[in-house]
């Protein structure tokens, strides 16, 4: 039976011996006879060979093993150390090779050199390389559940820090900048190698694990208000607005400048008070919600036919750029340039200082996320015998359920790092040990468990339990409550359905979905259901013909109501959802005639 051969997922033909072909291709790759990007996998069950050369495959380097011995000899390592040999040469000489996910199915990889057996095919360069970029930033990941490490990787991407050193020259649509980023006291080897401390994205907090009057139930956290006043976790939010002086067919164009009074949609002199003569706001001007940043007028949307007698001046409409209705800030920078089409192009960057508040999200590097529920002045916070006050209090129940022992280990490591003045190593499978931290704490007069006696800040009484307290790296995530908080009483509605608009940016209503509706039905709350689904949404009173069941009309000139279909004057007003009326109209448009059969309410 011949083996099927697939090239980049497509069937390419048959081969007499698929296993032999796979081995030959691998040997040729190792001796540089074929391209290094080629990967080949053999599936014995189905007798298929898969050859991959296409782009977009994640590939990782591994040391080649032959007859149970590593190809990376001590002599080679010495040559690499002294710069006599480069990485590319290791790959070319068949010492290291890159495997993709498919070829890795054929590999038997050893973690450590001392574990090597004759059946092994590859050896890990470093054990922590089994993790991805974000996961290698997490210290002590082997002490945590896998989903928590995955969650921590997601939080690393969402953290605020120094996102770019040239942030002052950039005009990103959205940007967050942490004011005082610190490098963590517990770092991994990958973190140091990649020099991520130059782009730190968090701060070292003193954290106590303690229930605080129920304010940190579940994932909520209690924060030291005085620490926030001292600029802990403070950040700046940047948003860039832009506009272009467009040209239109027919020779018309937009005009940037203060709009004149006769312009359609003129907002009044007050609205344009902060604009300069050129129609652009000055830098460092405080701008409130809906404030005008760039004054602009545009030609009318539809060109009007001008008759011989009708000499008309060109009508213009207001089209200025304004701050979003739910934001405010300070005009930080203005950029004047040209668009690719050669038109005047303006960017205005608005900055806003974001001080942590109730509802803002924080997370450690272990997926232990939480929002601020209470900010307590320092004098009311619990304190240690040395007068140390925690910056953050998290709930004890957050640890056993999530099984993030690494979180507690980092608190211990951070505490030891503060006393030793040395950064601790939290690299996966190879970091510093718990015993080392315990020894350091004992040498510095602390309990090796990391627990301390705390005193209540309000009463001064001792808390009769030893509280686990340490230093851990916390990140402020970009889920800021001031950028999400939204409510409305009345506001704009959609033209098509007459229902409230959707989304915070459009001053939309809060959606009451199908499942919420089911709850109201289940509770029998019919009046509430009607209020939400009809009165507060798209209530409409329509005329219905009682004779033929179609919609009737009201002729305002003759003050007469009649049915245009059967010309009957027997009509009645019916309260309904406008979306229902729209549905009936859409049914009519495809040739279906829906009838409404009316009955008395009694």
In short:
By secondary structure, the protein is an alpha+beta fold. It is 19% helix and 27% strand.
Describe this structure in words.
The protein folds into 3 domains: 3-130, Alpha-Beta Complex (Hypothetical Protein Ta0175, Chain: A, domain 2); 141-234 and 358-476, Beta Barrel (Dna-directed Rna Polymerase Ii 140kd Polypeptide, Chain: B, Domain 6), CATH 2.40.270.10; 236-305 and 313-354, Beta Barrel (OB fold (Dihydrolipoamide Acetyltransferase, E2P)), CATH 2.40.50. The mean pLDDT is 92. The strands form 9 sheets. It has a 6-stranded mixed β-barrel with strand order 12-26-13-24-23-29. Strands 5, 6, 7, 8 and 9 form a 5-stranded mixed beta sheet that branches. The protein is built from 12 helices and 33 strands. The N and C termini lie far apart (82 Å). It has 602 residues and is an alpha+beta fold. Helix 8 packs across helix 9 (434-443).
Question: Would you spell out the secondary-structure blueprint of this structure?
Answer:
Layout: E1 3-7, E2 10-15, H1 18-30, E3 39-43, E4 48-52, E5 59-66, E6 69-70, H2 74-81, H3 87-92, E7 96-100, E8 109-110, E9 122-123, H4 146-158, E10 174-178, E11 186-187, H5 189-193, E12 203-209, E13 221-224, H6 225-229, E14 235-244, E15 255-256, E16 286-287, E17 292-294, E18 296-298, E19 317-318, E20 321-322, E21 329-338, E22 344-354, E23 361-364, E24 369-376, E25 383-384, E26 392-394, H7 398-402, H8 405-420, E27 424-425, H9 434-443, E28 451-455, E29 462-476, H10 514-523, H11 526-538, E30 539-545, E31 553-555, E32 560-562, E33 571-577, H12 578-589
Parallel strand pairs: 1-4, 8-9, 11-27, 12-26, 13-24
Antiparallel strand pairs: 1-2, 3-4, 5-6, 5-7, 5-9, 10-14, 12-29, 13-26, 14-22, 15-18, 16-21, 17-20, 18-19, 21-22, 23-24, 23-29, 25-28, 28-29, 30-33, 31-32
Helix pairs in contact: 8-9, 10-11
């Amino acid at each position: 039976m011949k083996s099927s051969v697939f090239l980049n997922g497509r069937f390419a033909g048959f081969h007499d011996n698929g296993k032999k072909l796979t081995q030959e291709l691998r040997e040729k790759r190792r001796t540089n006879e074929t391209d290094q990007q080629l990967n080949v996998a053999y599936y014995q069950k189905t007798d298929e060979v898969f050859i991959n050369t296409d782009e977009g495959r994640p590939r990782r380097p591994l040391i080649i093993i032959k007859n149970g011995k590593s190809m990376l000899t001590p002599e080679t390592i010495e040559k690499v150390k002294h710069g006599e040999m480069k990485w590319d040469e290791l790959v070319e000489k068949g010492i290291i090779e890159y495997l993709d996910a498919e070829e890795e199915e054929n590999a038997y990889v050893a973690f450590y050199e001392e574990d090597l057996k004759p059946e092994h095919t590859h050896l890990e360069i470093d054990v922590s390389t089994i993790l991805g970029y974000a996961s290698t930033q997490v210290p002590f990941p082997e002490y945590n559940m896998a989903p928590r490490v995955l969650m921590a990787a997601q939080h690393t991407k969402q953290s605020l820090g120094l996102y770019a050193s040239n942030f002052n020259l950039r005009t990103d649509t959205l940007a967050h900048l942490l004011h005082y980023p610190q490098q963590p006291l517990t770092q991994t080897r990958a973190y140091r190698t990649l020099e991520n401390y130059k782009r730190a994205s968090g701060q070292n907090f003193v954290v106590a694990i303690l229930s605080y009057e129920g304010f940190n139930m579940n994932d909520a956290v209690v924060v030291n208000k005085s620490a926030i006043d001292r600029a802990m976790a403070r950040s700046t939010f940047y948003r860039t607005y832009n506009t272009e002086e467009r040209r239109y067919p027919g020779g018309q164009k937009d005009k940037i400048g203060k709009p004149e009074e006769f312009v359609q949609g003129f907002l009044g002199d007050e609205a344009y008070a902060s604009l300069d003569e050129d129609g652009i706001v000055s830098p460092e001007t405080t701008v409130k919600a809906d404030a005008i940043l760039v004054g602009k007028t545009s030609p009318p949307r539809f060109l009007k036919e001008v008759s011989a007698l009708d000499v008309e001046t060109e009508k213009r409409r207001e089209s200025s750029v304004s701050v979003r209705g739910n934001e405010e800030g300070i005009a930080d920078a203005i950029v004047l340039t040209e668009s690719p089409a050669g038109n005047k192009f303006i960017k205005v960057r608005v900055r806003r200082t974001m001080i942590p508040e109730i509802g803002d999200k924080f997370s450690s590097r272990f997926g232990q996320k939480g929002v601020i529920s209470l900010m307590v002045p320092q004098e009311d916070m619990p304190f240690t015998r040395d007068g140390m006050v925690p910056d953050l209090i998290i709930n004890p129940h957050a640890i056993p359920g999530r099984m993030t022992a690494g979180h507690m280990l980092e608190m211990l490591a951070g505490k030891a790092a503060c006393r030793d003045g040395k950064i601790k190593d939290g690299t996966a499978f190879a970091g510093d040990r718990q015993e080392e931290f315990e020894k350091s704490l004992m040498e510095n007069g602390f309990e090796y468990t990391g627990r301390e006696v705390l005193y209540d800040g309000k009463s001064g009484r001792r808390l009769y339990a030893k509280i686990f307290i340490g230093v851990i790296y916390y990140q402020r995530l970009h889920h800021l409550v001031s950028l999400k908080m939204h409510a409305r009483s009345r506001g704009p509605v959609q033209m098509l359905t007459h229902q409230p608009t959707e989304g915070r940016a459009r001053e939309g209503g809060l959606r009451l979905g199908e499942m919420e509706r089911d709850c109201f039905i289940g509770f029998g709350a019919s009046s509430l259901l009607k209020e939400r689904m009809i009165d507060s949404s798209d209530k409409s009173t329509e005329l219905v013909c009682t004779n033929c069941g179609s919609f009737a009309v009201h002729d305002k000139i003759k003050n007469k109501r009649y049915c245009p279909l059967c010309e009957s004057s027997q009509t009645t007003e019916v309260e309904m959802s406008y979306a229902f009326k729209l549905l009936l109209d859409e049914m009519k448009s495809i040739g279906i005639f829906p009838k409404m059969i009316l009955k008395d309410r009694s």
